[in-house]
């Protein structure tokens, strides 16, 4: 399964907040009654207890909540790194359970970009090689892939550090490389777990601005776990988690403008 992109919105297009095509397409991600209990630990932990979440194509959603509330567990399930014990996960309207197991790794690699809480750069590879990683097992011309890696590094202003190994980079620079790696295949959905967690406010601000810019210019969907109010403000919607459940959802000013644009498109269609 490949996620159908908007015809008028190839990865690097000029953005519109909401288009006619969006209206006809199913939500990009939908979770229905998702439960996850970790039985592996000495005492079972109910990390997710009936989560329902719908994310629109091109939406930018923040997930907030106290430590241990289930944010990373939720992101792992959305990112197809883990399976729910109960409940359903849909991508672009398709039930993931129906997607052949063997197709999932490729789907994840192509359509979902992840920025982890621990940056997970491979220490023995340079910044360039780390960003190249998602391409390793894909078909296509090497020169094209290298060009995409350069482009992703350029977006995060890391071209001049491309031959550095992770230990030769600052925390913020490593995070920018991780952002570049998550974006290199122009995935439909980017999932980020506290992308600004270890950054100073200036660098954090740059990373947020970058994600906001990509969301607006490419129509990519972002789901971002964060404790940072500035990140939340950059999103259309803020979802609050507590004890494995979503307890509140609030639309930001930006989200309200998006909804208004959506309503205007609907009115025109009538
Ligand atoms: N692999 C695991 N095995 C057992 N328990 C786990 C596992 N991973 C997470 N947990 C537990 O599940 C709960 C939710 O963890 P999760 O990592 O999703 O929280 P979080 O909201 O991301 O927290 P933080 O803000 O600290 O990153 C916690 O109580 C945690 O201890
Ligand atoms: Mg976490």
List the helices and strands and how they pair.
Elements: H1 20-24, E1 29-38, E2 45-55, E3 60-64, H2 71-78, E4 86-91, E5 94-95, H3 104-111, E6 112-115, H4 127-132, H5 142-155, H6 171-183, E7 189-193, H7 201-218, E8 221-225, H8 229-234, E9 237-242, E10 245-251, H9 253-269
Parallel strand pairs: 3-8, 3-9, 6-7, 7-8
Antiparallel strand pairs: 1-2, 1-4, 4-5, 9-10
Bound molecules: adenosine-5'-triphosphate (ATP) and magnesium ion (MG).
Adenosine-5'-triphosphate is lined by residues 38, 40-41, 45, 47, 65, 67-73, 117.
What fold name stands as the CATH topology? Answer: Rossmann fold
- In what range is the share of β-strand residues? 15-25%
CA-based gyration radius: 18 Å
Spatial strand order of the main sheet? 6-7-8-3-9-10
The helix count comes to 9
Terminal Cα separation, in Å? 32 Å
Question: Total number of β-strand segments?
Answer: 10
Specify the CATH class: Alpha Beta
Overall domain count: 1
Shape: globular
Low-confidence stretches: 6-20
Which class do the helix and strand fractions yield? Answer: alpha/beta
Main sheet: strands, sense, barrel: 6 strands, mixed
Average pLDDT value?
86
Approximate helicity band:
25-40%
Q: Which CATH architecture?
A: 3-Layer(aba) Sandwich
CATH H-level superfamily title: P-loop containing nucleotide triphosphate hydrolases
Instruction: State the order of secondary-structure elements, H for helix, E for strand.
Output: HEEEHEEHEHHHEHEHEEH
| Ligands and ions found | adenosine-5'-triphosphate, magnesium ion
């Amino acid at each position: 399964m490949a996620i159908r992109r908007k015809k008028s919105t190839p990865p690097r297009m000029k953005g519109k907040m909401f288009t006619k095509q969006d209206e006809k397409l199913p939500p990009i991600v939908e979770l229905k009654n998702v439960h996850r209990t970790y039985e592996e630990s000495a005492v079972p932990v109910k990390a997710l207890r009936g989560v329902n979440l719908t994310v629109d194509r091109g939406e930018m959603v923040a997930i907030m909540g106290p430590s241990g509330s289930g944010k990373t567990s939720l992101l792992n399930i959305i990112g197809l790194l883990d399976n729910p014990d109960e409940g359903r996960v849909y991508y672009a309207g398709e039930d993931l359970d129906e997607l052949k197991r063997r197709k999932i790794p490729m789907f994840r690699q192509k359509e979902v970009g992840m920025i982890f809480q621990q940056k997970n750069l491979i220490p023995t590879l340079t910044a360039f090689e780390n960003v190249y990683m998602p391409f390793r097992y894909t078909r296509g011309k090497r020169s094209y892939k290298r060009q995409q890696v350069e482009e992703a590094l350029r977006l995060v202003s890391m071209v001049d550090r491309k031959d550095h190994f992770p230990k030769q980079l600052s925390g913020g620079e490593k995070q920018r490389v991780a952002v570049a790696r998550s974006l290199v295949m122009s995935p439909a959905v980017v999932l980020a777990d506290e992308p600004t967690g270890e950054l100073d406010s200036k660098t954090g601000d740059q990373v947020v601005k970058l994600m906001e810019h990509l969301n607006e210019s490419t129509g990519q969907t972002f789901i971002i776990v964060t404790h940072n109010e500035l990140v939340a403000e950059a999103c259309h919607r803020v979802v609050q988690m507590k004890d494995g459940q979503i307890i509140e959802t609030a639309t930001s000013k930006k989200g309200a403008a998006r909804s208004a644009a959506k309503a205007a498109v609907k009115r025109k269609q009538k």
